[in-house]
Predict the structure.
Amino acid sequence: MYRLSPPTSIGASWSATDLYNFRGAPHDGENSLAPALLDPHGNIFGSTDLGGSGSGSGDNICGSFALIQGCGTIFELSPQSDGSWTETVLHAFQGSGDGQQPIGRLAQEAAGNIYGVTSYDGVSGAGLVFELRPPAQSGGAWTETVIYQFGQNSGDGLSPAGGLVRDSKGNLYGETFLGGGACNCGAVYRLSPPTQKGGSWTETILYSFTGGSDGQNPNGDLSIDPSGNLYGITTTGELSSNGTVYQLSPPASGQTWTLTTLHAFQGNGDGSVPAGGITLDKKGNLYGVTRFGGDASSTTGCSYESMGCGTIYQVSPSSSGWTKHTLLLFHSNDPVGTNPFVGLVFGRGGALYGSIGINAYQLTLPGK
């Protein structure tokens, strides 16, 4: 885990500080891919999809191939008065009913409870949603509770493909890569908190993808606007095998949510296979990356060379609909890298930040 600090003078370089170096199983986590969560006290919470003390059970063996690497962890990094950081493993998944391989963004409520998703384990092995509660007394252990297991019902989502976003009422939203109906094309779900203490969370499938113009196989973290609209991406689809950006709007009345395809990627210069979810600004503009597409004439050195090196895009609302703009085309000789798969975040001054591999980059928008 590292921190990048902006320069103190114009034209100077950013400075990188290592906050913590993970040791891997059985000590702590390994392979941290999800966005970090920063609380008001400056503590950092995150997940690793490998590492920890778990090894699974039965046919469910954590790790890759024959190498046992652990089932993943949830960790906290806390700043110390001497400038150092202390890591605490809040939960090491065991892969035996408590979850395996956490994925995507964590969500936190005011009381300090943390919510997250694992890709595997649960009653059908199709993943689950968990809650981590802080200890009642200082120095105590965090408590994990499984609040939902996917695959319990016909038409349920399977294999979560991103983390969680939380609304003002405490509802949690996420998406699954598979399940959701006969197409098995994925779904968007909502988990509503119990109405009384000790009760169960309630899952509702808000939308099941059909593989047509709506796309299929959603992937990445969702974003939510003040009106409760959800925004996300799909990676493929019958009419657009290159993926889509979509909006899912809550019903004015009744129970049916409405999906609108805001953009269907066309490949080549338009981009192909969006990744990392959607970043939303205060004006309602959407930003994201595509893994492929871009400059078709400059593909040497890119993964899947014939598909291009990737793009950064913007989808903007207007009175006549939504308009997609390509902000950047990655090239084979880009020093930052090619084929991005991690989403974007906003920084000071409205600049966008992202990373590819070990390199971080800044994208300054016109007028910023």
User: Anything to note?
Assistant: The radius of gyration is 21 Å.
